[in-house]
Amino acid sequence: MVFATRVDSPVFLPCWASQDEKKKLQKTDHDMADTFLDSNNSPALQHGTARDPRIHDLIEYWTSKLRGRAMPSRSDIDPAEIVRLLPFIALVDVIPDTPIEKRYRVRLFGTQLVEFHQKDWTGKQIFDVTSSEAAQRIVQAGEFCVNHHRPWLSSGKLYWANHKSAKQFEIVIAPLSADGAIVNMLLALLVIVP
Length: 194
Hints:
Strand order of the largest sheet: 1-2-5-6-7-3-4
Number of domains: 1
Shape: globular
Structural class: alpha+beta
CATH architecture: 2-Layer Sandwich
Largest sheet: 7 strands, antiparallel
Number of strands: 7
CATH topology: Beta-Lactamase
CATH superfamily: PAS domain
Number of helices: 6
Strand content: 15-25%
Distance between the termini: 29 Å
Order of helices and strands: EHEHHEHEHHEEE
Mean pLDDT: 76
């Protein structure tokens, strides 16, 4: 079974947007859909939820690293095996037993992500690099992965600083665990869909 929900929350609002821009963006019609994969981590893809092949590639790669476990570890992920995906990848440390605002720290932020955001998030807490609304949305996805040990997919419209207009995006966030039980890192891939 695939768990899916329609989300009516605001689109991601960039931290660099002025108050007037944020008001305008919040009023803009948008479409955001989240899909939570089932325990086999694949049916949503069979139903064509993600359009971009890189999303499919990352989920297939993550799934191939399970080897009978609920989720792979960071040591299972070999950058040499996913070279074409690296510019779109973020690795996020999950810091247990900390307030939600400090729980997610970006360890790696791909070159395309830096270009999209016009800011390198590497080494920063999520709440320190983007608006509160966007940070809450990102953390909500992270919390799903941490609590359910499953990947999270989303698509919708996102406003990029360098374009000042809505861009269609797709994202997958997948949990990683050093001990197979507690999520200590998230592997994310974000792409702009033409």
